[in-house]
Amino acid sequence: MFTHEVFNRDIIVYKYSMLTPTNYIVNTKLFQEACQTAPENWGGRTTINKPTGNFFYDPWELKDEYKGTVWQTLYDSLPVTKGEARIIVLGPGQAYQSHADIDDRYHLNILGDESFLIDLMREQMHKLNQDGIWYDMDAGFLHTAANFGRRARVQLVIRKLLKKNPYVKRKAFKNKATSVHVNRNSQFENITALRALYTAAGNPVLSVDSKKKELIGNLFRAGKVYRGF
Question: CATH homologous superfamily for 3-159?
Answer without folding.
Answer: Jelly Rolls (2.60.120.10)
